[in-house]
Amino acid sequence: MLTDKVRSIQKLQTPPAILVIGDLMIDHYVWGDATRLSPEAPVPIVNVKNESTTLGGAANVAQNLVALGARVTLGGVIGDDAFGIQLTEILRNEGIATNAIIKDSLRPTTVKTRIVVGSHQLVRVDREVTDPVHSDLEDELVNKLDQYITEADIVLFSDYGKGLFSSGLTQRLIRLANDKQKKVIIDPKGLDYEKYKGAFMIKPNRKELAEAAKTEKIKGIEDLQKAAKTIFGQTGVEYLVVTLSEEGMVILDELTYKLLPVKATAVFDVTGAGDTVLATIAYFIASGLNIEEACELANHAAAIVIRRIGSATTTINEIIEDIEKDKA
User: Fold this and answer.
1) Structural domain count of the chain
2) Is the per-residue pLDDT at 263 higher than 70?
3) What's 137's domain CATH number?
4) Is residue 275 annotated as part of the catalytic site, yes or no?
5) Among 13, 120, 158, 264, whose Cα sits 20 to 30 Å from the Cα of 311?
6) Residues of the domain holding 308
7) Which sign does the torsion angle of CA 29, 31, 35, 39 carry?
8) Cα torsion angle, 243, 60, 285, 152, sign
9) pLDDT of 154
10) Active-site position among 104, 153, 187, 275
């Protein structure tokens, strides 16, 4: 049984070592009340009651992996600023190794500030530069990541389109991982999937796949397979795992597919669910399970986190409980 395999993984003395490379960011929330309009413009005046800060982007993927029990190293670029210091401190407090993070004095640490009144988000303010990282910093990052790729059981790319994953750097890192016989799993962004050539697996959602394959909306499995064929031709990856929101997810290779129906009985918030799916698949593949088993467990993990408000994580015990509840 799958739960027996998961329990045996829990008993491993050395949990898997996972390297996450990606766009790092902070999610900053400002909570308040709004009872009147500004006399300066027809906008609400927000009386701030509270503020909170959480990890975003690739850092949220790393946080999900830690919750599952992995040993995690995070690589990427932050600004040489106060938010960069804050991000690094949060990561270290979470038990995430930050040795592979480098600073860029020419770009700020990415911060998304959301102004929330009651249960409604009024506005989001982004501090970011999405220009490609300078070539000198790319070289520095590759040299720093070399050692951590060697030590990792699996490598994740969490691409949020913030300038880290240029075509050149992405290919350098994939070749480096392949030379060391490390599987690379990618959460993609944008239309250029050729830069992911040589990876083990790519995990787009339905909309991302349709856009990258330059096709109309994907409705059924035939549309899905047609779009996937385009991506397989561009990248040569072994698997595509396509998340389908309320329909679950589908695993595709070049010849076959398997649909995994959604496990959720209630949906409150899908924020961060894709990060949970990515982290769970990587964790269990690194622990020795095959891709179908890992995706089945990721489906349960996603069902757990979307029942909660905000970016959430889950644990192996909760996944086991969800499987057993599903079978009851």
Assistant:
1) 1
2) no
3) 3.40.1190.20
4) yes
5) 13
6) 2-25+56-108+130-327
7) negative
8) positive
9) 98
10) 275
